[in-house]
Amino acid sequence: MGRLFYFYKIAKCKFKNNYIPKPKPPLPCHSPKGEPVHVRAAAVHGFTFNVNRFAFRRMTRQRSFEFEFVFEFSCLYFINFANFFKQGFVSYKMVKIGNIELGGFPLLLAPMEDVSDPPFRALCKEQGCDMMYTEFISVEGLIRDATKSLQKLDIYDEERPIGIQIFGAELSSMMRAAEIVEEAKPEVLDINFGCPVKKVVNKMCGAGILQDIPKMVELTRAVVNSTSLPVTVKTRLGWDDSTKYIVEVAERLQDVGIRALSIHGRTRKQMYKGEADWTLIGEIKNNPRISIPIFGNGDIDSPQKAELYRNRYGVDGIMIGRASIGYPWIFREIKHYFKTGEILPPPTTEERVGAARQHLRHSIEWKGERLGVLEMRRHYTNYFRGFPHIKKYRSQLVTNLEPEVLFGVLDEIEETYCEFEMMNS
Ligand SMILES: Cc1cc2nc3c(=O)[nH]c(=O)nc-3n(C[C@H](O)[C@H](O)[C@H](O)COP(=O)(O)O)c2cc1C
């Protein structure tokens, strides 16, 4: 109300005197100490508002009302109001999965087999990812103590909140796996009903279940009843173009107790082809029956697209997959853009090499030397995308097995391209 009152007072004075001066950017204001302060339009509205108000009061006490100031203040108030509307009123409500608070409009790292392991997740977390999921874990592997499946249960406190994702088709195995997952103490248990890979769908797992919605609902209910963890589901629009039942499926899954739903805007038949269509995701958000958070997924690869899809489809948060591979900075870029409307400069060479170095080091620590080195190979291209003449270094990175050699190559890349960066800046 205070803001409205001051704005009204200024506007009234301004219009009453019919004074229309020319604007002079940047707009000066006076701090409580009296020295001029340049108030940037994009500054946090609460702070600028308080500075302005203080200065405003002081000036009205000390001197007569000068129109010049009136105009400037009215501009400032206008800007503050614009910011207030943009950042204050249109602030996003706290998104919760069960009792887990994710903040307003969270950005989630998509579960990705062979990608979203702890070394990669650590990088995404550092860049502002609000929640992430493990790679999918076979329930059959889990209940049979398969080493690879058990290793995927490894989670670290710094990564929280985190969801462990499972896939399977057998009711009893899903229920037993839910108990095993609970012992690993993640914040969330996620069920994968979206993987399109042939060997998975042939067993009626992953997206295969989209051909049998009653079974999908039954499996989900069984998992929800087998664990005290909040259960979430990640799925696709449907099996193919003629079976996009996701709007009804969302209601049925909510009714059996899931606490959030992530939807990839493609059918199984599309695999990863074409463009993700979020129309039905938006429809689910508009369904008054739906009260759980709905996370949109598919093709978000820039801050502008994230904002466009956020506004257009009204989702509660966005899940990002491929755009984060070798580019964890996507999270900080989107967050910064949402907050300020500005595009951050891309990461420096030092940051890119630093991330690759950290990724390699953690991979070796977590998977052992040989596997850590081998599995890191798929990431180099992405970390150094766009580097001119990188081929020579990349082939060294993907052929050498000794960590010392690899770290040496990374040092060399840093040296070469930092110089190149400086020459071009
Ligand atoms: C390499 C790779 C592995 C994936 N593994 C999984 C997985 O384990 N579980 C899952 O639910 N989705 C998986 N997905 C699908 C992604 O989570 C996501 O739904 C998809 O990539 C679309 O999002 P994007 O356009 O942001 O990449 C995988 C995708 C990729 C590219």
Q: Would you write up a description of this structure?
A:
This protein is α/β, with parallel strands linked by helices. It has three domains: 2-89, no CATH class; 94-340, Aldolase class I (TIM Barrel, Alpha-Beta Barrel), CATH 3.20.20.70; 349-424, Non-ribosomal Peptide Synthetase Peptidyl Carrier Protein, Chain A (Orthogonal Bundle), CATH 1.10.1200. Helix content is 49%, strand content 13%. The protein has an eight-stranded parallel beta barrel with strand order 5-6-7-8-9-10-11-12, surrounded by six helices. The protein has a two-stranded antiparallel sheet with strand order 1-2. Strand 9, helix 10 (246-255) and strand 10 (260-264) form a beta-alpha-beta unit. Helix 7 runs parallel beside helix 9 (213-226) and helix 12 (303-313) crosses helix 13 (329-340). The structure holds flavin mononucleotide (FMN). Flavin mononucleotide (FMN) binds next to strand 6.
